[in-house]
Amino acid sequence: QAEQGFTRLKVYSNLTREAYGAVREEADARGFIITGHTPEGVRGPGVPFEAPFDIAFSEILDDGFETIEHVESIVWHGLSDREDEVA
User: Fold this and answer.
1) Could you write out the DSSP letters of every residue in the chain?
2) Rounded CA gap, 14 and 41, in Å?
3) Domain count, the chain
4) How buried is 13 (Cβ within 10 angstroms: 0-12 exposed, 13-18 middle, 19+ buried)?
5) Cis link prior to 52 (omega < 30° from 0)?
6) Cα dist. 29→8, 21, 23, 24, 25 in Å?
């Protein structure tokens, strides 16, 4: 698809850390921009209420996303440490 002029890769929230790393490497190699949902890793038992996401939101913010899809992702991660206050 790069040959057809695409310049972005859209990611989804359930990517494993390894898969997201591979996407990030390919995007960097091709000069692509990352956009999409915030990768969080596979949701195992207790995630996100009793256990944290595998990929921290702060890691994603430092990765140069062009856009983050869906405002609830920003709200969820931004307020997760204040759950009792906003309930």
Assistant:
1) -GGGT--EEEE-TT--HHHHHHHHHHHHHHTPEEEESPP-----TTTTTTS--SS-HHHHHTTT-S-BS-HHHHHHHHHGGGHHHH-
2) 5
3) 1
4) middle
5) no
6) 12, 12, 10, 9, 6
Above 80 in pLDDT, residue 86? no
With respect to residue 14, please indicate whether it lies within any of the assigned structural domains: yes
Task: Kindly state whether residue 85 falls inside one of the protein's structural domains.
Answer: no
Domain contains 86: no
Residue 81: its pLDDT value, please?
A: 65
Q: In the numeric block, which tokens belong to residue 60? A: 């994603």
- Residue 27: which pLDDT band, with cuts at 50, 70 and 90? very high
Residue range 55-69, pLDDT digits in tens: 888 888 888 888 888
